[in-house]
Write a structure and sequence with these properties.
6 helices, globular, 153 residues
């Protein structure tokens, strides 16, 4: 499920938990992951910190039920015309300068985002949320935390 790469997962009191920002690349993870599992994902992430920012970026129109699920968990939805990966990248890079986040997380299966991961790693902790078969040695070497989506399927 959730594993800390390179060091043991620390248990921290609520006051000292790290602040997490999550960007979900919905088109790449939606093949198996259902938005109904966002609550389970949020609970898993609470082991390492408090989610301060959560955004689901998609290129399709969401149903009222999907929007309600996203909002009920405290996430925002962003519907873009095309090129979701560009919008994911811009959102991730904007979070680099945010003082309200310690860990930047991205849920994706897009290997083209690796240069963005490298940039994030220079300034913040990096959380990768993806499927087990997408975890490469390169992802393992750069990520501070990996959350496997297979756990929620």
């Amino acid at each position: 499920m959730l594993r800390n790469v390179g060091k043991a997962l620390r248990i921290i009191s609520d006051d000292n938990k790290e602040k997490i920002a999550i960007i979900i690349d919905e088109p790449t993870v939606s093949q198996y992951f259902q938005l109904a599992n966002l609550e389970k994902m949020k609970k898993a992430l609470m082991q390492i910190g408090t989610i301060r920012i959560g955004k689901v970026i998609t290129d399709k129109r969401l149903t009222e039920e999907e929007s309600a699920l996203i909002n009920a968990v405290g996430f925002q939805e962003e519907i873009v015309g095309s090129d979701v990966d560009i919008h994911v990248t811009l959102n991730l890079l904007n979070l680099l300068h945010s003082k309200s986040t310690d860990i930047i997380g991205v849920a994706t299966t897009d290997p083209n985002l690796f240069p963005v991961f490298s940039r994030i790693k220079k300034e913040k902790k990096l959380l990768i949320i993806t499927y087990k078969n997408n975890i490469t040695p390169a992802i393992e070497s750069i990520a501070d935390y990996i959350l496997e989506l297979d756990y929620f399927v």
